[in-house]
Write a structure and sequence with these properties.
single chain, Alpha-Beta Plaits, 2 domains, 5-stranded mixed β-sheet, 5 helices, 27% helix
């Protein structure tokens, strides 16, 4: 028996995100899904797992149930499989931010960067006018990074805005 794991996120305005906690938890528990989902006013992020039919039921619920008002209709996810259930319990947590920047007024639902297709990535980072900053934490950067990437030496993503303010030219 294989367990399907789905990593999912969507940045979308959810002013009533606290009202979504109970319906999501109920759907997950009803379908024996375990993992963690984060909800904030800026969207949803999570990794959940269960048997494939049960996972499909929950993913369809997120995409189609009226309680979400179509906000997750195009919710994408990445899949992997495991021989054992990777999680012990189900949690749906309410957070102030999904992407913890700690900077007032920043919203990933309103201002985003340019999406780069995978096949265009190497050409982009080879451009001498492109500044590539590895925003992952110090542990992840120690495992490996892109050639020429700047390591801001942060331990959490929350430290990144201070690095930007101190080290990057605001005119670029």
């Amino acid at each position: 028996m294989k367990f399907l794991t789905a990593a999912l996120y969507k940045f979308v305005s959810l002013p009533n995100y606290a009202d979504l906690q109970a319906p999501i938890l109920t759907a997950c528990e009803k379908n024996n899904i375990k993992g963690t989902i984060l909800l904030a006013s800026e969207g949803i992020n999570g990794t959940i797992a269960g048997l494939p039919d049960d996972m499909n039921a929950v993913l369809n619920f997120l995409r189609n149930d009226a309680v979400f008002d179509g906000k997750f209709a195009d919710l994408e996810h990445k899949e992997s499989y495991a021989d054992e259930h990777p999680f012990y319990r189900m949690k749906v947590k309410l957070k102030k931010e999904i992407v913890t920047l700690g900077v007032a007024g920043v919203s990933p639902t309103k201002q985003v960067g340019t999406y780069v297709k995978p096949q265009d990535w190497n050409a982009l980072i080879s451009d001498p006018d492109v500044i590539l900053i590895d925003t992952r934490n110090d542990y992840e950067v120690d495992i490996g990074t892109f050639k020429g990437a700047i390591d801001p030496k942060t331990t959490t993503f929350r430290e990144f805005p201070a690095y930007v303010a101190k080290n990057l030219d605001k005119t670029k």
